[in-house]
Design brief:
Strand order of the largest sheet: 1-2-3-4-5-6-7-8
Number of helices: 10
Number of domains: 1
Number of strands: 8
CATH superfamily: Metal-dependent hydrolases
Largest sheet: 8 strands, parallel
Structural class: alpha/beta
């Protein structure tokens, strides 16, 4: 096992009720990966993540469907059973899913559907509005991930989303833009419409500066926090599926310290790590 599951505590303790809004559970020993999804990373179980929760001071979690499982949500739903009331789920579904299946998922704690336009995601932007119309009556929001450099093209569709949704990974600009760029300003305009959240997660996937400071993603993160602290949430992106060895594995506690530094005030930390996610996911 190359993953780090324990270490020094965060420089600033997380507030009580802290929510990690983006993790994946991989358990191919019990749930084989889907042939339409990318190859799975090494298994990362509920028991592994519970160690991370204890290490970082995380109380609650949102389990997000991994691309490797495509539309097969069994591993995620099993994880929700294991976590109990501490967890909510974001599944991958298509618009033809039955009411009975959505009712069952909701009862287990599912509160969102994933739209993933990258890395062989199960449902892309071409299905987004149909899926939104299907799951919205069940109280599910969307999380949406795409190359943020294309956001101006996607604005007409994003502006039609009913209910709350999350723009994933700080906009996932595959070449990070500047805070005064047209693309980032478009993201802020979506936030200003009142139903869009921005998730700070996975800065190491797109930053050109890299560790330890990820200054390009830091500039975007500070800007969105300053603009709308009530509309920002945080996810660890554990178990960092793109990391394949100890040499490439991110430092979870250093990343958490960095986001808390970007947040600045205790008031913003409370909003980003507790209040906003509690409201969005119904904890």
């Amino acid at each position: 096992m190359f993953r780090t599951l324990q270490g020094r505590p965060p420089l600033r303790p997380l507030p009580p009720g802290a929510v990690d809004t983006h993790i994946h559970i991989i358990d191919t020993a019990r749930f084989p990966h889907h042939p339409d999804g990318p190859p799975p990373p090494p298994d990362a179980t509920v028991q592994d993540y519970e160690k991370v929760m204890g290490w970082l001071g995380i109380d609650r979690v949102v389990v997000t469907q991994s691309n490797t499982y495509n539309f097969d949500n069994r591993c995620l739903l099993d994880a929700l059973d294991q976590f109990g009331g501490r967890a909510r789920g974001v599944v991958a579904v298509d618009a033809d899913i039955s009411d009975a299946a959505l009712d069952e998922m909701t009862a287990k704690g599912v509160r969102g559907a994933r739209i993933m336009n990258l890395l062989r995601g199960a449902a892309g932007l071409d299905r987004m509005l149909d899926i939104n119309a299907r799951v919205h009556p069940f109280g599910m929001s969307l999380i949406v991930q795409f190359d943020g450099r294309e956001i101006l093209h996607h604005l007409p569709a994003l502006e039609q989303i009913r209910g709350d949704y999350v723009i994933d990974h700080t906009g996932k600009f595959l070449d990070p833009v500047a805070p005064d760029s047209p693309e980032f300003k478009a993201l802020l305009r979506l936030v200003d419409r009142g139903n869009c959240y921005v998730k700070l997660a996975g800065c190491y996937e797109t930053s050109k500066f890299g560790a330890p400071g990820f200054e390009d993603l830091g500039a975007l993160s500070r800007a969105v926090i300053a603009h709308a602290p009530d509309r920002v949430i945080w996810g660890s992106n554990w178990p960092h599926n793109m990391a394949t060895s100890a040499e490439t594995y991110p430092d979870d506690v250093a990343l958490l310290d960095l986001v808390m530094d970007w947040a600045g005030s205790e008031e913003n930390i409370q909003k980003i790590f507790v209040d906003n996610a509690t409201r969005l996911y119904g904890f």
